[in-house]
Backbone:
């Protein structure tokens, strides 16, 4: 996709953040995590003692994020995955058990990471599917990040957790970097101004009187309701043209019918 | 888990939001979406013409969210999935193509949904894995939600998208859930449901054809623009009565004039 968007890609691709998965059991989760990362512009994946890797299931679930998988580094212990990192953050579903760590929500964590200098390397550690991070592994972490979940069902999939953290980082990174170039292209038409709205209301009132829906001797309540209705929409010029066209067609019809009278 | 946390569960479980998946190809994605929902407290899942359902892969990927799968309703067309809904939101990766829909980021969407009254039903529609939502399906949507992704790789998995939207809703719902009880007493009328909107659009289309503003052999673009226009307002029943009254007056006028012909 997008051959001429290399610059945009580089702006999006972030080497600052490294995702570290520990002893992942299901290779499909590794692939899904790679996809989750890439879709938010992250590329650096470390796998600590994965049960099965490489694996066809990982590739299948990566769905085009093969490059992230191919560049993934497999190491045997967490310490190897974080040796060159400046900041190490652990993910935990059971936040209340670890009171001694600074705890951030996923949102606060995204903001915190985005604020760091680009030359800092930040590792975010995701534990095993069933048991999360061990106490030894938590010892490597300077802080924890917690994703709020249903108290009765906190079985957040590890790739889904990677998705949420990557997303939060991405959102904040976009905000702190210069506004994205595509922003203006996404702009909608500007709504019409008040003068145009008044012209529309007058045309509407006249037309409603013509078709005898409105009693000209007491138009106020009906027009007030209609103003409240149409005033809630930011009507853009092309839409206003349609509305005025409908009103004119209503009047034109009436005019034509009158002319046809013998 | 947590036998004595029934109250907490109820606070978390939200019937306000319905997740609708359209023609999902991979049953594993349905299961993963159910898990993504439940972990954020959502329970209501509608499946429009899924390729394979029920399916062992869906159950495997649901990983304990079997109840969400079991309660999932399978329907053959999107209209059946949203007929009782007050707000219909479509998800789109290609935001810039659809300029006339109000577009929210996932974050803004979460805030918007959380702000709605509890007795409103809100459907969030997720399209096919490869091709998303069709134009016909987009016509049912009042607004769109967009998740920002890597411009060169926007292959966000559908269950990951459900996870992000459910998460954003959950975050904001927690923030707004403590609103005082008297808040509801001050509320305005509830907007009409989707069935009422469809009835209005049919009446509008017929009337516009009657006054020859619309060419019945090619009605789609005009009706699409008008759906986009009126779909942006939460029309309440008393306002709908006025709009339908105007349409009837337009038709009645025509009828009367014809009768007057000698």
Residues:
């Amino acid at each position: 996709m997008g051959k001429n968007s290399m610059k945009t890609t580089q702006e999006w691709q972030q080497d600052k953040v490294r995702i570290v998965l520990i002893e992942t059991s299901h290779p499909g989760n590794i692939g899904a995590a790679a996809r989750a990362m890439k879709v938010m512009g992250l590329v650096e994946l470390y796998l600590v003692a994965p049960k099965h890797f490489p694996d066809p299931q990982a590739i299948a679930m990566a769905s085009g994020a093969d490059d992230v998988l191919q560049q993934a580094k497999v190491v045997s212990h967490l310490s190897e995955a974080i040796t060159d990192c400046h900041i190490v953050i652990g993910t935990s579903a059971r936040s209340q058990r670890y009171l001694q760590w600074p705890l951030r929500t996923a949102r606060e964590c995204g903001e915190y990471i985005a604020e760091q200098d680009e030359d800092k390397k930040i590792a975010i550690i995701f534990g095993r599917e069933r048991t999360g991070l061990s106490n030894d592994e938590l010892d490597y972490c300077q802080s924890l990040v917690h994703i709020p979940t249903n108290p009765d069902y906190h079985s957040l999939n590890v790739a889904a957790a990677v998705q949420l953290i990557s997303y939060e980082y991405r959102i904040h990174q976009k905000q702190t970097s210069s506004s994205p170039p595509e922003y203006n292209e996404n702009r909608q038409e500007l709504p019409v101004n008040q003068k145009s709205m008044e012209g529309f209301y007058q045309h509407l009132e006249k037309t409603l009187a013509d078709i005898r829906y409105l009693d000209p001797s007491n138009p106020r309540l009906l027009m007030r309701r209609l103003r409240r209705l149409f005033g809630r929409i930011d009507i853009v010029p092309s839409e206003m043209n349609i509305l005025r066209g409908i009103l004119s067609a209503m009047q034109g019809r009436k005019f034509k019918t009158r002319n046809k009278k013998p």
